[in-house]
Sequence to fold (739 residues):
Amino acid sequence: MYLTTRNSPPRTGQPAAGGKLPSTVFALGAVSLLTDVSAEMITAFLPVYLLYTLQLGYVQFGLLDGLYNGATAMLRLLGGFVSDRLRRPKMVAMAGYGASALAKLAFPLAGASGAGIGGVLAFDRAGKGLRTAPRDALISLSTPPGRLGRAFGVHRAMDTFGALLGPLVTFWILAELGTGASPVFVVSFCFAVLGCIVLATFVREHVPPTPKPARSPVSWRACAGLLRDRRIRRITLAAGLLGLVTISDAFVFVVLQKTSGVPLELLPLLPLGTALVFLAAAVPMGLAADRFGRWPVFFAGHVLLLGVYAALLVPNGGFPVAVAALVGHGLFYAATDGVLMAYAGPLVPEALRASGLAVVQTGQAVARLLSSVAFGFLLAAMTMRSAVLLVLGAFVLVLVGSALLLRRRPDALAA
Amino acid sequence: MRWLREHRVAAGIVAMVLVVLAGGGYVFWTSATGRAGEAASAMPGDLLFIDQSDGRDVVQRVPLADPGGPRQDTAERCQRVYSAGGTTVCLRLAGPGPSYEVAVLGADGRVLRTLGLAGIPNRARVSASGQVVSWTSFVTGDSYAVPGGFSTRTGVLDLRTGTLIESLEDFSTTVAGEPLLAADRNYWGVTVAADDHTFYATVSSQNRTWLVKGDLLDRTMREVRPGPECPSLSPDGTKVAYKKRLGRFGQWELAVLDLTTRHEQVLPGTVGIDDQAAWLDDTRLAYAQVPGDGRKSSVFAVRADGSAPPELLVADASSPVPMR
Fold:
């Protein structure tokens, strides 16, 4: 059953895949676009800043990076829980976006202290962790279930567009204003603030249709109880297992450059290829998910990723193999990133929406972190080819396992 | 209620316009403070370096005899620069991405060759003859043990033959008597000897580093000792300066190894050095160091025997290059 918000008139429609998307989706897309410009500006600049301006060692930087990657997982759960508990997803998302905006100003204050930079990075990532689940819950709660795939597709496409713009803005600043740190941080801060203003102005708080009960149904016990629901448990498990065999993007690009034999100088452009395909395919994949079912599309995305890993084993494939791998990689993101949320959303009771999405996301994020570390050890111990082969074998096992786990397609549209 | 809602949208739009105006104004104000001046070219006896005062990375020169004297701009803007034997290597911004390139310049300042870089410019060297050019870039997101960390790509170009070695990872390396085959091995900081084929460099794997001695012709490297990074060979080829960590994850300090006696001298007061040091002559080194208290990188000079504390050579500067 779909319950409307106060601000969007009740749609007496069947959960069809057609129809308009609520303006909230576009507003949240714009917020993510602006915030991603801000975030990716920093991602592109941070190595220059740390290595060149501050002269931090790269081992130190690696430690910081691990720290902030780990920091988000737990905060996702917290963000989802608080958002459901207070019944104010927009407010919690706002806090998360605001924290990341403030972090941009804190970088110069931290100076060349490794601990200081680590703290700011952790704060920034904490903001990201906090906001993700309530934001996805807002999208999920404001969109009719039949259009969720498309809604998340639109959101992820806008998000990716921002991520592509960010490095361009940074480059323009470096070329025009020099590699001094202040302009990059100030402009990044401005984009982040614009994102916060759009959120405050154009996104309406989701108001539950039922009056607030005397005792909130949202408790840690209720959230833990989500995993007692077989479908939620299984999708969390499947997403987590698939996450365990997902090699981090950085590894994919590096291994791809080496095995395909494309020029080394193209390495920085490979992520761009994936992002462009993701951008172009996010909405069509969302539509496909609405039409053919979210689980099949999510699963097909991982089959594509298996193909990408197989391409990593083709020696000296040159540009054709590199392009095919990047297209597959971009399609994998388009078929899985938003689609997983579109799939999980309707399975979770409305009162626990943010918590439920956070549980699924956290499972996936933690699994991917573990897989990155594990793949790192594999690379230190064996050749690249053997490491990829090993992952490939595990991938096939997990695909079979997750197909068995969800073979009944609990993806009925009328959730 | 309706009034409030419209009011909120208007307030939001006004706020956005204010942010855009403030940000745009700041960028405009920053870009307006440009620098104009005649470009000078470096002479023997000059010290070349990158000006760090305004982030524009202009290569400047001062007479080494009077390092406190007036600094003159040259025509180049680089993130790292080195020059010897009439050849200059400049690692600089190249295009959207942001991406970077290696520019090899001849004695007349003309670009002989440019090569794309796979990451952030970090080390640049030219052999004394000007014939062998090497560079290192730090590639983000491809360190193997830590997700999102760093790894390096080191290239070498021989101008006599045009031979380009894109990455030292293709060489065979021996560490502790065993061939190093781990896929996570990284190389950086090459310094080439007067014969133009013997070189020293850093190799790392699993967060351990070693000083290696190699040969560009038979493409091999073998361990000299564990620990040191970023070697720099003295002009007479008898000593190698490098940085080493105080603790496991501590800061670096500068040390000099006598290659005949194997005596290692740590130079006091050099904590915080990054990059390769540059030999001013056979007894003195110049290096860039970030003080660590928020101040910009500056170039210091220190005696190679550790007999005296370092002294400031040029403030707000990096990449010192003595012109011979």
Q: What stands out?
A: Chain B touches chain A through 74 residues (CB under 8 Å). The first strand of chain B starts at residue 46 and ends at 51. Chain B has a mean pLDDT of 89.
